[in-house]
Amino acid sequence: MFPIHDDTPRLNGRPYVNYGLIGLNVIIFIYEVIVTSNFSNRSAVIILFYNYGSIPDLILSGQNLGSIFSSMFMHGGIAHLLGNMFFLHVFGDNLEDRFGHFKYLMLYLFWGVMAAFAHSMYAVATGQGDIPAIGASGAISGVIGAYLVFFPHAKIHTIIFAFFITTVRIPAIAYIPFWFIMQLVFAFIGQSGGVAYLAHIGGFIVGLGTAYGWKFISNMVFKQRQYPSQNYSRRYSMSSPSFSNDSSNRNDDSISTGTDNLEKSFTPEIIIGDKFIDVIVEDRNASNESQVQANFDESLNTLSLLVIDTNKRYDISIPHAANTILHVSSVSAKNGIIRVRLDVK
């Protein structure tokens, strides 16, 4: 199975960092091809990989740590490069959209570093600590792990090669765990073929944990956070989404069920920009924006979302700085993720 694109829309412009990472990988690969005469000059290949590849023995002894970063942008062949870049293209742009350009770049490098250490520990333990590791797959595995947390209901358009070639749309919550299980299986049975599966596994686990930690910490911090670029003493808290149901056509049992839904609810994610606030809510019944109504009440500083098909309502308190007016500028809904942008007038 080979992913070619997903159907998760971006709201914050082009993913320039992701484009830059792909471009840098391609440029460095071209340099490798030139220096090694398309990898036919074995001595040049050895010199290049041992100088700039990540050698586990050296990494764990604290030497040549800079090679962790140089090795992230090197590849051993055109198939190695294309495979990694397709995965980065498919999964990276939405994470950059979610984190922002600088944070995404820092996290990408962090995931690559953690993957390199995971591989180094395994390689040294198995007597392969003198073999240099190259490739972006450790960092990209972190991207894949974080993608699963933020976009579990996204559909991945995938090419399947069997006795025939076809494309299918597979939910991320099915595609990515299957991919991860395969990394575990190959690592367990020793199906190496020069592939650093422990880098994939380590990067994925760190990416997964980073995304869960990001969601938890951002929600906790936001509850005590002042609106940026404003000097005022009052703090605003964010309520968990509350549900209300239209009782005109419902009996008492259906209304009490709404209370059960509230107990199982989660805190919405808030992204604060210079002149906007993005509010992200997960609701599996929201597949497109026509199913969602959004209204911002300035007097209560509350964003109300109504999922029309289920008549489920979310009321979310929004921080509001003095002398600013917020209004709903856009609403998107896809794969169970509702995203509302509030612009500052």
How are the SSEs ordered, and which strands pair?
Layout: E1 2-6, H1 16-35, H2 42-52, H3 56-60, H4 66-71, H5 78-99, H6 101-125, H7 137-150, E2 155-161, E3 165-171, H8 172-189, H9 197-222, H10 252-263, E4 269-272, E5 276-282, E6 292-297, E7 302-307, E8 312-317, E9 326-334, E10 337-344
Helix pairs in contact: 1-5, 5-6, 5-7, 6-7, 6-9, 7-9, 8-9
Which outline best applies?
elongated
CATH superfamily of the largest domain: Rhomboid-like
What is the residue-averaged pLDDT? 82
Number of β-strand runs = 10
Q: Poorly predicted ranges (pLDDT <50, ≥5 residues)?
A: 225-264
Number of helices: 10
The CATH class of the largest domain, by name, is Mainly Alpha
What is the CATH architecture term of the largest domain?
Up-down Bundle
Quickly count the domains.
2
Report the biggest beta sheet as strand number plus sense, adding barrel if it closes.
4 strands, antiparallel
State the distance separating the first and last CA atoms: 47 Å
Portion of residues within helices? 40-55%
Strand arrangement across the biggest beta sheet: 4-5-10-9
Structural class: alpha+beta
List keywords for this structure.
single chain, 345 residues, alpha+beta, Rhomboid-like fold, 2 domains, 19% strand
